[in-house]
Write a structure and sequence with these properties.
125 residues; 4 helices; Rossmann fold; alpha/beta; DUF4406 domain-containing protein; four-stranded parallel β-sheet; 45% helix
Length: 125
């Protein structure tokens, strides 16, 4: 299997009540999943990796306000259109569920376990 670009979909703000520490923990969980996908030989992407700097450049989420959810969703949708698949990690999240729906509409594979994603060298885990 050739290396694939895989979007990591999981909670970001969901279930945090806006608590910055919990939001950071959610992002760290996505980043751990990204590292696991990378170790399998693929290129992981997380929507917030692109959305947050773009939002800052646009002046969104300034003065302590959260970046609008729709902005985060739109960036993820554009990323999904360029990806080969989506890895949905655990945790309630309307945005991540939407990412999976969009990927399926595009005919992309969606994984809910790392074991489902073959190594890039052609072996199946």
């Amino acid at each position: 299997m050739r290396p694939q670009t895989i979007l990591i979909a999981g909670p970001y703000r969901s279930g945090t009540g806006g608590d910055a520490r919990l939001i950071e923990a959610n992002l760290k969980a996505q980043e751990l999943a990204a590292w696991q996908v990378y170790r399998k030989g693929h290129l992981p992407l997380i929507g917030e990796w692109a959305a947050l700097p773009l939002a800052a450049a646009a002046g969104l989420g300034s003065a302590g306000a959260a970046v609008p959810s729709q902005f985060l969703y739109d960036v993820a949708a554009r990323m999904i259109a360029r990806c080969d698949g989506v890895y949905r990690i655990a945790g309630a999240s309307a945005g991540a569920d939407g990412d999976v729906r969009r990927a399926r509409e595009l005919g992309l594979p969606c994984y809910d376990s790392l074991d489902q994603l073959a190594d890039a060298d052609g072996t199946v885990p």
